[in-house]
UniProtKB/TrEMBL annotation:
It comes from Loigolactobacillus backii. One of its GO terms (cellular component) is cytosol. Keywords: Oxidoreductase. The keyword Oxidoreductase applies. One of its GO terms (biological process) is glutamate biosynthetic process. Belongs to the Glu/Leu/Phe/Val dehydrogenases family. SMART domains: ELFV_dehydrog. It comes from the Bacteria. This is Glutamate dehydrogenase. One of its GO terms (molecular function) is glutamate dehydrogenase (NADP+) activity. Homohexamer. CDD domains: NAD_bind_2_Glu_DH.
Length: 448
């Protein structure tokens, strides 16, 4: 066994022993380790300085209590986390997730992925992530506000515009960011560089709302063009119906594709004439309803219970935009059978390792999350730049920068894969390109 293989195995073993109850974190690390050996062979100094041992251990991770009072006057207590994973190339940056499944394993997997994603954007941002097991579904605005105020009362002690800049993720959208920002400002005075995804009237950036979904399509467009194709007339399956999915649907349609589906955790809607993103936006973002309502409003659409990935229909592109591990191996086989030629991840780690293997074995074009969904955090970093400079760029300006960033991410991943002997493997390419910059910065900064 080569020295690099031995080293990877020993670090992996140590993590498994230390964190046996963190399956999502282990999945993310394993996924990364399976592609990184060629880099270690070229850079023995990374092995000698135990770079991966340091990289896989968060610089800081903390858990805190969030007490709040519900509409019935009952005191509720939620658990919250912030993982400040790696600051080698800039302040910790990454979203906050409010969802009942949130635990340390999920926040660590998301924070670990964020390190390389943020590096791929080419902007100076480190990796972090946070959240709580609070479930915003079915809560009143007053309850959400009291919860977020209590959450920020603790979190504000540990963040800062040059230290750690949170944003949204599942369950944290414009409403939550507004309440979080209001509470931060109340406790610290005005500082609009403390969060991104802010409203436009108080320091937000144009195009941040659209950025992850639009960015995903810019990445897919770059990948298809490199293979002599375009999005025109492509049939697309999208999962999810939240921030990422809505704007992925919009941009896919603008680029000439037909989006057949969107989904939530109960079921999905199918319309062969194409999903109308404005209707999804109204139902999910304004009314906070269920996707089932779509079929009541658009007569050509049908609603189906269950996972969209079990639905058998021919299509060209699969864009999972809901949540982690939403596609298993059996469903991945159906993706291949249904004729899809490309899978690109809008959600973080949406495919199980077995599903990823199915895609790779079938030679599908596979765009991993850390590359394909980096548009959101990229525009967050542009929001930080605008806040520091006290400027507001136009929508077109931000959108053009986003397009360029996504094209660069595709190209750098493709180039890295080629350079390290795995041409066409965009998962390996993204891992390698994202890792090299962070590794270089860590080596330059000594054993820290
Ligand atoms: N918002 C952002 O800027 C970014 C989000 N992401 C990732 O994209 C994914 C979606 O995030 P957002 O759209 O922001 O969240 P969101 O809270 O706006 O929407 C999530 C959507 O997925 C649906 N969903 C949740 N679990 C599901 C399941 N098991 N099956 C089908 N649908 C399900 C929900 O009903 C909701 O419509 C997450 O993995 C997130 O980490 C990644 C990069 C940036
Ligand atoms: O905009 C951000 O800072 C974070 C976005 C995010 O959480 C992600 O990329 O998964």
């Amino acid at each position: 066994m080569s020295k690099a293989s031995e080293y990877l195995e020993s670090v992996q073993k140590l993590i498994e022993q230390r964190d046996p109850n963190q399956p999502e974190f282990l999945e993310a690390v394993t996924n990364f380790f399976t592609t990184i050996k060629p880099v270690l062979e070229k850079h023995p100094e990374y092995v000698e300085s135990n770079l991966l041992g340091r990289l896989t251990e968060p610089e800081r991770a903390f858990q805190f209590r969030v007490p709040w009072v519900d509409d019935q006057g009952q005191v509720q207590v939620n658990r919250a986390f912030r993982v400040q994973f790696n600051s080698a190339i800039g302040p910790y940056k990454g979203g906050l997730r409010f969802h009942p499944t949130v635990n340390l394993s999920i926040i660590k997997f998301l924070g670990f992925e964020q390190i390389f994603k943020n590096s791929l954007t080419g902007l100076p941002i480190g990796g972090g992530k946070g959240g709580s097991d609070f479930n915003p579904k079915g809560k009143s605005d007053g309850e959400v506000m009291r919860f977020t105020q209590s959450f920020m009362t603790e979190l504000q002690k540990h963040i800062g515009p040059d230290l750690d800049v949170p944003a949204g993720d599942i369950g944290v959208g414009g409403r939550e960011i507004g309440y979080l920002y209001g509470q931060y400002k109340r406790l610290n005075g005005s500082q609009n560089g403390i969060l991104t995804g802010k409203g436009l009237s108080y320091g937000g950036s144009l195009a941040r709302t659209e950025a992850t979904g639009f960015g995903l399509l810019y990445y897919v467009d770059a990948m298809l063009k490199d293979h002599g194709q375009t999005l025109n007339n492509k049939k697309v399956k999208v999962s999810g119906a939240g921030n990422v999915a809505i704007y992925a649907v919009q941009k896919a349609a603008e680029l000439g594709a037909t989006v057949l589906t969107v989904s939530d955790s109960n079921g999905f809607v199918y319309d062969e004439n194409g999903i109308d993103y404005k209707v999804v936006q109204q139902i999910k973002e304004v009314e906070r309803g269920r996707i089932k309502d779509y079929a009541d409003r658009v007569k050509t659409a049908t609603y189906h219970e269950g996972s969209v990935w079990d639905f058998d229909v021919d299509y060209d592109l699969a864009l999972p935009c809901a949540t982690q591990n939403e596609i298993d191996a059996k469903q991945a086989k159906l993706v291949v059978k249904d004729g899809a030629q490309l899978v690109a991840a809008g959600a973080n780690m949406p495919s199980t390792p077995e599903a990823v293997k199915v895609f790779r074995d079938a030679n599908l074009l596979y765009g991993p999350a850390k590359a394909a969904n980096a548009g959101g955090v990229a525009v967050s970093a542009l929001e930080m730049s605008q806040n520091s400079a006290r400027l507001s760029w136009t929508f077109e300006d931000v959108d053009q920068r986003l397009q360029k960033i996504m094209q660069n991410i595709y190209q750098e991943s493709a180039d890295a894969a080629k350079e390290y002997g795995v041409e066409g493997d965009y998962l390996a390419g993204a891992n390698i390109a994202g890792f090299l910059k962070v590794a270089d910065a860590m080596m330059a900064q000594g054993i820290v």
